Amino acid sequence: MNTELDPRLLSLLVCPVTKGPLTYDRNTQELISPRAKLAFPIRDGIPIMLPEEARQIEG
């Protein structure tokens, strides 16, 4: 189920590892932290901001 992430929510969230900004990937339904090279999943419209739930990404 692809749902849009509220832009206001995205502006409030930061990477829990680097405290840096996140970008929203609509296709994979993930929040991407380029500095940490992590992708945090969004499940049922809820961002899962736990480092152990994130997947490593190529950077």
What does this structure look like?
With 59 residues, the chain is mainly β. It has one helix and five strands. It has a domain at 25-58: N-terminal domain of TfIIb, CATH 2.20.25.10. It has one helix at 7-12; strands at residues 23-25, 30-33, 38-43, 46-47, 55-56. Strands 1, 2, 3, 4 and 5 form a five-stranded antiparallel sheet that branches. It is globular, with a radius of gyration of 10 Å. The chain starts with 6 loop residues before the first helix and ends with a strand. The mean pLDDT is 92.
**Quick one: how many beta strands?**
5
Rg for CA atoms: 10 Å
Mean pLDDT over the residues: 92
Shape: globular
Helix content: 10-25%
Report the CATH C-level class of the domain at 25-58.
Mainly Beta
CA(first)-CA(last) distance? 27 Å
What is the annotated CATH architecture of the domain at 25-58? Single Sheet
Sum this structure up briefly.
This protein has 59 residues and is mostly beta strands. It is built from 1 helix and 5 strands, in the order H-E-E-E-E-E.
List the helices and strands and how they pair.
Layout lengths: L6 H6 L10 E3 L4 E4 L4 E6 L2 E2 L7 E2 L3
Antiparallel strand pairs: 1-2, 2-3, 3-4, 3-5
Spell out the key features of this protein.
59 residues, mainly beta, N-terminal domain of TfIIb, 5-stranded antiparallel beta sheet, 1 helix, 5 strands, 10% helix, 29% strand, globular
